[in-house]
Amino acid sequence: KAGVTQTPRYLIKTRGQQVTLSCSPISGHRSVSWYQQTPGQGLQFLFEYFSETQRNKGNFPGRFSGRQFSNSRSEMNVSTLELGDSALYLCASSLGLQETQYFGPGTRLLVL
Amino acid sequence: QKEVEQDPGPLSVPEGAIVSLNCTYSNSAFQYFMWYRQYSRKGPELLMYTYSSGNKEDGRFTAQVDKSSKYISLFIRDSQPSDSATYLCAMSSSSGSARQLTFGSGTQLTVLP
Description:
The complex is a heterodimer of chains A (about 110) and B (about 110). With about 110 residues, chain A is mainly β. Chain A has no helices and eleven strands. Chain A starts with a strand and ends with a strand. In chain A, strands 2, 4, 5, 6, 9, 10 and 11 form a seven-stranded mixed beta sheet that branches. A four-stranded antiparallel beta sheet of chain A has the order 1-3-8-7, with no helix packed on it. Chain B is mainly beta. Helix content of chain B is about 0%, strand content about 55%. Chain B is built from no helices and eleven strands. Chain B is globular, with a radius of gyration of 14 Å. The interface of A and B includes residues 31, 48, 50, 99 and 100 of A.
């Protein structure tokens, strides 16, 4: 069974731009979570989606948003990029909300 | 103070050594405890999953949870150079509809051949 896939793998943007990242969960998984990983803050929870609805949200500004489609694929969007948004963005999928999460390889975003 | 504390290392051990990795936490609501391994430029890979207190063994890996002390451990026996990675502890509570994971900062491990 294929794992979680994320596209693109690498991205370079400039301050003020916006970016959209994509995540395809493991087949059959209906829950998708997003995390930001930085050397200073480690892995931090962004939000979780299940059945196209956001079920939980971490402590990030409104510039960070996401959505989930009917096929469980998910996208996250960051608007008005700041230098501090440079990070590895990880997507994790699980069968349901209370199930074990499996991570994708991440999208490495660099904001210049 | 962070909810989950983990010694960042780095930790270097010779091949064949027993490795002990630890995390402490402050949130008594945490019920689910996990260890992830992350290789450089890769996503975290689930190694061990434990519910509540006790021990769990899987091959060379043993996870221990002591909820009374709010302390979890991962032991790696007969460590191999391929075990060189960053090890992240993660935990979540049973309340709420979502399984939001709170991670430790990760311990960087190098196993020297």
